Amino acid sequence: MVNQLSIRFFLRRDQILESSRIPIYARVILDRDKFDFSSKQYIESFSDWDEITGRVKKKSPINSVLAEIEHEVNWALMEKIF
């Protein structure tokens, strides 16, 4: 039985590309087990990122991609439970 699910997005500050693009990673915590994976999305500057919401500050298609990833994780969990 699943007790807790958390999905967060964060910047990998240790993996900035040569083009100065910053990768966005997803962290899924499921019953105290942690899984990190790349969202395959990048931002140009740290100032574009909102740490509290885990999204790009300005209106961006990246936020839609992150929402879709979040939906897919939730859907996969629901299929596993039922």
Task: List the main descriptive attributes of the protein structure presented here.
82 residues, three-stranded antiparallel beta sheet, two-stranded antiparallel sheet, elongated
List the helices and strands and how they pair.
Elements: E1 5-11, E2 22-30, E3 33-43, E4 49-50, E5 55-56, H1 61-81
Antiparallel strand pairs: 1-2, 2-3, 4-5
Description:
- This protein has 82 residues and is α+β, with helices and mostly antiparallel strands.
- The protein has one domain (5-81).
- Helices cover 26% and strands 38% of the residues.
- It contains 1 helix and 5 strands.
- The chain has one helix at residues 61-81, and strands at 5-11, 22-30, 33-43, 49-50, 55-56.
- The strands form 2 sheets. It has a 3-stranded antiparallel sheet with strand order 1-2-3, covered by helices on one side. The chain has a two-stranded antiparallel sheet with strand order 4-5.
- Strand 2 and strand 3 (33-43) form a beta hairpin.
- The longest helix has 21 residues, at 61-81.
- The protein is elongated, with a radius of gyration of 14 Å.
- The model has no long low-confidence stretch (mean pLDDT 90).
